[in-house]
Structure formats: C-alpha cells, structure tokens
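Review box. Two proteins, two foldings.
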Amino acid sequence: MNLVNRGYIYIRPQTKFNTWAKQIDPELLLDEQAEGTVYLIEEEFWDDEKILQQYLKKITTHEFSSVTEEKDLWLSCNTTVEFEALFYVEIGCTCIDLRKDPLQRDAI
C-alpha cells in the first residue's frame, strides 16, 4: 500500500442532474444509485467550500459534457449551492493506493 499525495472530491449525481440528463438523452442509465466520480486534488486544504469552488467549473464541465457538448443546454452551476443541488459531494484528504503496479495517467 502507498499513500498518494492527493486529496479527493467524490461526486455522485442527484435527482436534479439525472432528470436533466434524461431530458437530453432518455437512454442514459442514470439513477440515484449511479456510480460517482473521484476527482483528485491537492492533498492539503483547509476549507471545503473554497476547494469545491476552486474546482467547480472543471468538474461541471466534465460532467455536463459527458451528457452533451451543447453548452447552451447545460444547467446553471456557478455556486457551491447550485453544485450541491446537482451532486452528492464528499471531500477528503487521504488517498491510499492498494495496488503495487504504478499509477497510469491519461489526459482527457
């Protein structure tokens, strides 16, 4: 096991995001139990609200574009309150890699 020098923001879609996404693409398999996404961030931070605000635009861009590239169809999400209405959020600072093989990075 290795401690990775990253913290994380874990998000999972809530009903409001799922409803919007299914209006765009009715065949999407989303529900309240949908798998979430882990975004790695700096390991040390002191204010969850600030760290969420710092990465809010990057995360929403990734999540919205996974449904549609048409930005004019995206929901408004400029504040942490709006973000937390769309996604369940969990923030933490401990990441442990249980694997022995090296981490692999691919740009997206």
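Next protein.
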Amino acid sequence: MGGFLRFVTRSRYHATAISALSLLLPPFSFIGGAVIGLATLRYGVAEGLTVLAGSSVVFAAAMWALAGSIAPAAVFVVVTGVPSLALCAVLRATASQGSVLVAATSAAGAAIAVLYLSVPDPVEWWLDVFEAFLATRSGGIEPRAFEQLSELLRAVVTGLPVAVMVTSICIVFLARWAHAALDNPGGFGREFRALRVGRRFAAVAGVAAILALFAAPPGFGAGHDLLMLIVAACAIQGVALVHGLVAQRRGARAWIVAMYASLLLVTPAAVLALSVAGFSDAWLDYRARFARTQ
C-alpha cells in the first residue's frame, strides 16, 4: 500500500490519472475523492483544486465519448469532489476530525434547509429529475414500471443529503489515513479516537432534534431529514468514542468487532445506540473522565 500511495503522490499528473481512472470503475469511485483529499492535505488547497479539475475533465471527456453525456462528471464534482476538497481543507487547517464532522453536518443541514425552502416538494422534484434522466438514457420508461420504482425511490431520495455527508466523511477519513501512512504513521488513529463535536454543536443539534420530533409535520420532510442527519453525525462520534475507550482501557479488539458487526446485523438499533452515546459524550466527555481514573 505504501508503494501505491507514493506513486499517487509522485506528481499531480499521477494523482489526476489515478483519480480519473477510479471514476471509470464504479466500485472504486470513492478513491477519486480520496486522492483529491490526499493532495489537499499534503500539498494544499491549490493542489487539490488542480487534481479535482484535471480528473473531472478527463472523466467528463471519457463519459462524453462512451455515453454522450458529461452528467456523471458533474455529479462527481458536486457530490464528491468539492465536499472532499472542502472538508480536507478544514482538516488541514484545524487538524481536528471533530471540526470536519461539524462542518460536514452543518453544510448538509444548510443544504436540506435550502432545498425545502426553494422546492415545494423535494421528493417529487427528485423523482422528476430521475424520470427525465431515464427518458434521455433509455428513450422513456413505462409509466407503471416507474410508478413502482418511485415508491422505492421516495424512501431513498430523502436520505440523499445524509448519504452525501456520511460518504464525504468516510472519504476524508480515507484521505487522512493515507496522509498519515505517508507522513505520520499512527496519526490517523490518534485523531479519530479523539474525535468530538463539542457542546456547542450538541446544543444546536439537540434543539434541532426536538423541533424535528415535535414541531415538524410527521412523515418525510425537512424535520425527518434533519433528524436523520443529527443521528448520523452523533453515531460517527459514537464510533470514535468506542475506539477511544477500548484503546484507553486496553480492551480486547473484540469490542470493536462487535460494534461493527452490530452495525451490519441490527443497523437501526446500533446506529441509534451509538448516536445516543456520541451525543452524551459531547456533554460528558467519557474519554477524559476515564483518563482521570487511570
């Protein structure tokens, strides 16, 4: 892995080529964002912008040649490229993964607010966009088939801002891990185990969650999306908390394995439990309390 990372960072042309190539292989497309993030963390925002621009142009040209559309490149820039670069710029400036989580959650919350203020029914808007995209790609879609598909999509599109936030955070973590592997072995783990969002963020999140639960209309909507976003953000802190406590107490790695297994096997319950743990940690700082007892 070290040899691959050194190859990627040998020059901006190497980074651009690897990023663009990964975008052409959907299972590995997340690597494109991580390469942009790595360039930003190691060399600065200007270098990250150069790699983003170069890989996006190459990817757009390839998509135009293969499918006659540059839409996938535009989606990559908006959904992956720009968020990865911006969050890695925050991490480079603050050296705090907690600050990155706060920034990502705040940006996603603002996006949700803008979307619901500017579009009367965001779910229907997303469905219209998707239907138009299918029409251009396949010459149209049978109405009954799209009606069946739309029932599934209604549950999916409301989680798009949350999905983008979580994906962006994971890409930043991957970029930071690669950066640490090159320049500061073990640094990523120390940063992640110390991740905290702070009481100010927790207070705002708590008020927003109460409003989403009791003041917002029931069902899918802005309140539902904001609540999902807060749960996801606090769950990420909960994961860092478990890692931190296991390391502090020199606990068995089986605890870490059990946590991730629960996320796979009983996802809703595990996410909610980690979210509660992460939210309470913002106020009580369990890692500092346990450190004082040692």
